[in-house]
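Continued from yesterday's entry.
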Amino acid sequence: KAHRSRPLRSVCATPRRRPPSAVWSVETRRAPRNSFGLRRAPLRVFRWGILLALRKAHPSNTPSALGLPWVLALFPRNAMAWFRTVPRDAVSQLARHLHRRPPAAANATSLPLPPSSSRATGVRAFADGGSGKSDDSASQPGAAAARDGAKKQQYGSGWSSRKHKCRFAENDMMVMHPDTNRGIEVLLNPIYNKGTGFSLGEKERLGIRGLVPPRGFSIEQQCAKIWESMNHSGKTNMHKWRSMQALQDRNETLFYRLLVDHIEELAPIIYTPTVGEACLEYSRLFRRPRGMYFSADDVGHFNAMMYNWKTDVSVIVVTDGSRVLGLGDLGAHGMGISVGKLDLYVAGAGIDPSKVLPCVIDIGTDNEALLSDPYYFGLQRKRLKGEEYIAVIDEFIQAVKNRWPEALVQFEDFATEHAMPILKRHRHNVLCFNDDIQGTAVVVLAGVYGALAATGQDPADITKQTFVLCGAGSAGMGIANFLHTAMVHHGLTPEEAYERFYVVDVKGLITSARHFKDGEPGVNDIRPFAASRHNKVTTEGMKLEDVVRLAKPTVLLGASTVSGLFTEEVLQLMGEINHRPLIMPLSNPTSRAECTAAAAAAATGGRAIFSAGSPFESVTVDGTTMHANQGNNFYVFPGLGLGTILVGADRISDGMLNAAAEAIPAFLDDAALARGEIYPRINQIRDISVKVAAAVMKQAVAEGREGRAGKIADIIKHEGSDEGSDLLEQYVRSSMYYPEYRPTVFAPKYSR
């Protein structure tokens, strides 16, 4: 007992030596027998003998060269005891040391791994309950193949042939939180639960043998079963949304794996448009708390509340629920938006799900239906206004900065009068961006570049385009300002670029005759566009049809959330003016889109290049198929967030946003452009995110915004060589989380 309780001085420290007789007497007398009837000490000596024999066979077979999986395979019980007694940072330190390979000598060969395995085979064998004993049939190819086939049938391809390779050895296993106990508690925790995916060794080690069915299934088999169940006839999108939420509540890894494998089909379920329906009834659909709620009653306590979230955080999505997907004020129901957006971060960019935090700032609601709803779980009072509202937002931002100074904060679905002022107020104070303003603008610019490519033009030809924009809110003016910046970048003066825009709001065309109140939200963004419309040809308040007839635009943009605003007459005019007009009804959800794909195709004979903010089906008219693109912000924010985090930037600049916009159309080939596709397929989102992240990181380094002590700049410097091509993209891809079952071990007990 005294021998075991001796404190561990250092990971690499040499243990105090004892006389051989003392070691044998202490260990043999006090150590319990194992499953083979042997004392622990002789078994330990046997294992060390194997390692020394391998070392003697060839000098290159050091513990570092063998790697962490072989060490765990030879010393599983000792390794687990060691994991329980040393601090977590020491585990990570040694894991990195063992994972590092020494340079190969000219005539040196390392120990060959078992057939059909990777460096993690030892971990997989230990996790599957293997004893490490040799099998006579291993030398027989037929028997070995049959055994491997039987094992793959039960557990799938397994950990050894996983798709994703992590950069650090400590990521090769799941270390449970110190507060987690063996047994049923493991199964009730969605982070650690694998359902029927536990190996025999894990069942024994975690104390769940007999608590789960005996037959094991791989994560691929589990995904196939759930996907088949979800696609039975009669299942509505809301039913699928609820099924996905239930899956996330019981098995988080399987939830994200299903989402990654079927991202094109499930993105409209997890996010817009289905999540909008869920947010309308979120209080009644609420089953399990996710994220954090900061209310007006908590003012003064935000800093302390942040520490109730125990893990480190890289990305925060926050909303005040004042303008949820164009559905209006939904108050605390906005949490559904924050949760759904972060699920897309994990699936699309590989952000670690343990490092994301959905938040809602509940400062009341002006929605009378919610104020009178007896089951509404938010504050049932009118919204805070003015300085009181700004003070709550400021306290939240400062609390985030104090707790997680490097976290990225994404503002989501804030009302028009608050969205732009909040962004301008905090853009230089904390790493943040507004997806409704900046994200939408980037994806629209990417779509314009894609449309120019589809019509045989270059990105510089954006200077020849004329835009009619419907909607002067935060999203609309964000789009206009970003397009204006791109036109100036390609050679126009600011005044010339402003003249290319016609902005229409609920009162009609905005001109210099419009009276603006000083201090009114968004006024400073609208004024330069209004000042460009000062001639007698255009009049204040012109209707949309008259504006289109007069301006002869090449691009028609909608950010008004007014369904049917693009009437048949307007669409026909666009078809008459242009051979291939670009029509972009961007409002979400589908019920708020300015027009449908069918209406645009019918009015233009299928010649239009169509892109909406919500999904539509492609339409064929008179043998001509009009492809319905979806200009979803999903193309932008995952890669933008990932690149910003990896490069350690202090802020997101316009140059980084423009780099993201230019990276998206690069996925389009000539065949796709000929079909009228201006965005890549959503099922390529992880590859798209890699390209976007790499472009953002390069731009950040060029602007001097890197916060990784020159590490990223050094990677970019080596990309010019033959061996360094795509080196930055490889680094980005290796940093992405991939949902797969990892061998699970207990965390160290700090009290021991």
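--- second protein ---
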Amino acid sequence: SLLSIPVYFVARFSCLLPPSYFLSSLTRNSEKMALRLATFAAGKAVLSTSRLAAPIFIKGAAATVVSTRSRGSYHYQKSLPRLPIPEHEFAMNKYIDMVAPVVSEEQFASTKKLVEDFKKEEGPQLHDLLKKYDEKNKHSSFISHFWYDVYLKARSPLPVNWNPQITFRYEENAERDEPNGKAARFIHASAEFYTQLKAEVIDPDVYALKDTVKSPLFKSLVQWVPESFSYYVAYLLKGYPLDMSQYPRLFASTRVPSREKDYLATYPDVDMRGDGPAPMRGPVTDPSRLSRHVTVQYKNHLFEVEAIRESGEIVPVADVRAAVEEIRKIGDSSGPAFPMGCLTALDRDEWADIRQRLVESSSTNSSSLRSIDSSLFVLSLDEVTPKDETEEVRLMLHGRPGNRWFDKCFSLVMNQKGRTAINFEHSWGDGVSVLRYANDVFAKVKTIENSPASSTPASFRPLQFELNDELKLAVAKSEESATKLVESMDLQFMEYREYGREYLKKCKLSPDAVLQQVFQLAYYKHKGKTVSTYESASTSGFKHGRTEVIRPATKESAAFVRAVAGGAAPDEQLELLRKATAKHAKLSLEAAIGKGIDRYLFGLRKMAEIAGKEEPAIFSDPAYTLATENILSTSTLHSDVLEAGCFGPVHPDGYGIGYGFAVEKGADGSVVDRSGYFVSSFHNDTKGFLSAIAGALDDLKPLLEVAKKQAEAAKEGGK
């Protein structure tokens, strides 16, 4: 191809440029990217992708996937930039700003002195150690290994504390939401996605800042560029490839409980155990190297159901539906089984001990556990019909724990109305890969015909457990413990229909930044103070990037909150709102491009620990706890296929806030611009805090009306 010649030279030239060139250029263009990356540990924008498929021929029930190019799903992985380590002086100054709004003046003065002392010698020494550690791990990022350990060493139960959930929208009509047919379509579509992922023919994840990235020309150009500098060519064309190192653990993976530290296992390659990303081994086209079944739960019963045949053919939807219907008949006729899933809701050390006893006591138990561990995912079919949206989402988060398997990479949870959610274990990855799976699979599900059950059910078998009296008692106690755990959490929902994302855009204000100010105002009015607040930002634009923290509680937000609560003049309130949202946008930008400081500070602490040093005084300082304890933990997501998302609180006295925007068009052509809020707490007056959020949203209405008029006037004046 003649096009490959200029592309080759552009790529060669780009590799001669220092990384600082790309970082500085990234900074110049990154506000848009930051706003797209900085949410729900994953991102807000729909991914733009380019098909770069490896040679592969996979048979499916309805179609054959054929591709001819030599570049695959991980085409950009080798040339992704590495997560930068912030400059020490910059990070320490930013830390001072982070602490200021959440501590007293006296505490702030003390902390500032500690930081100044730390900057003189101890801090630079630890910074140098972190740089050296990073140099020794060029295949990864400075935070990756430590962050996997944060999850895998945690001993608290997975439900409520760690596993989040995201809920799909309903389909177009009730017939397509009938649960047996829908379950079969989800299994079929997921198996197809899995085979394409293993064959490395799914498109690489790329964020697009220009529509040209979505064009055939972009795809034609980048597919000829060698992997060692493919990222730079995409970057020059305004595409930002994302890290895909988490994808190998998306399917057929599990978190295995172990004393002191769990580990991750991915099948069928038994050596893919570890505490980090699974190795990328190249395209897999041999069906014998695939995991070929899913685990289906119903009324606590567990079944192994074939999803991919030995030939590599994906089992037809009608056959899968027949198997699902047979499973329901078995569960309905025999009643609930022993609630083995409750074991996965235990303290991790306790579950590790029980699992070991299960394996040692019976080869049947060992075989059943291995079947669950190696399955593509778990499908949990619930027999209940929730009374309202709050109960529905709550059941998706933790359900009746006997009918869940929280260790699994992800589970699809489906109730009697056909409402479906993804509940995922968080250690192996963040929202980027899960959101990609959700988008692609739901789109496929909508295209699959709602077939009646066939007369030839997919192969399935019940998974049995042989329990002695000691193990029966352990399972019974785990059910009591799991019930107590889920009942300890309160979850409430509120929908606000006065204004939403589109209206805020007309005000020339960032919708996400405005809502973060709403949360600050609501908490101040509810509790009378400003507290540590967490908003997740993705660093998936870097090799083995995970997440960084946006800290919405700032000096600017505190000033805005005090002005509103104190009844300051509306003009002053609006000016302070603009300053607070601008600061939030700046922090979002910095987090997305590797200039956040939470993970950096954590890295310094780990360096002190590894070096056998005494913990630096700034980390034992009460201000550090106050600044990082995350009383408010917030996450949002945006996808046309999702309806809701929620998670548990991360602090005993805190709130977990899952929020999002939606625009609905009525039958009469009217448009409803709305926002929704799922708030969780450990029975810490959740309804009262939701009421405070509604009040804060109302407080902003007159300010936003002025902002909208000013934006319209400015637009008219610019014509």
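DSSP finds 23 helices and 22 strands in the chain. The CA atoms of residues 136 and 277 lie 17 Å apart. Will compare against the first tomorrow.
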